[in-house]
Amino acid sequence: SGDDFESSLLSFEKLDRASPDLWPEQLPGVAEFAASCKNPITNSPPKWMAELESEDIEMLKELGSLTIANLMEKVKGLQNLAYQLGLEESREMTRGKFLNILERPKK
């Protein structure tokens, strides 16, 4: 009776997965990415690597070799640097305001 129950649950309906209306792409670009992953052995590098210089590739390799802790430390360092640059920019903008170098010339 268990086999009868299982066979009663089987559906022989054919679903047309080619239809974009029935099976829309939920995340844009996923199908293109999946297609590019199916053929991993290609002579040309991916599109995003075309504009990278050798320095960029070396940095990617360096960052890829870091442990999670080291990578987090690197990210915190970048956040601190961005904060310091923001403070410096704020000081320079204030300085420019006081020196009236940011004023528009009067016509």
What is the gist of this entry?
It contains 4 helices and no strands. The protein is an all-alpha fold and 107 residues long. The mean pLDDT is 80.
Task: Give structural notes.
Pfam families: LIN52. Belongs to the lin-52 family. It comes from Hucho hucho. This is Protein lin-52 homolog. The structure is a single chain. By secondary structure, the protein is mainly α. The protein has a domain at about 65-105. The protein contains four helices and no strands. The protein has helices spanning about 1-10, 30-40, 55-65, 70-100. The longest helix has about 30 residues, at about 70-100. The protein starts with a helix and ends in a 9-residue tail after the last helix.
Layout of helices and strands:
Layout: H1 2-9, H2 30-38, H3 54-64, H4 68-98
The count of strands amounts to 0
Q: Total number of helical segments?
A: 4
In round numbers, the mean pLDDT is 80
SSE succession: HHHH
Structural shape: elongated
Rg of Cα set:
28 Å
Distance between the termini: 95 Å
Q: Describe the sheet with the most strands.
A: none
Provide the structure class. mainly alpha
**Percent helix range:** 55-70%
Poorly predicted runs are: none
- Our estimate of the beta-strand percent is under 5%
Jot down its keywords:
4 helices, mainly alpha, 107 residues
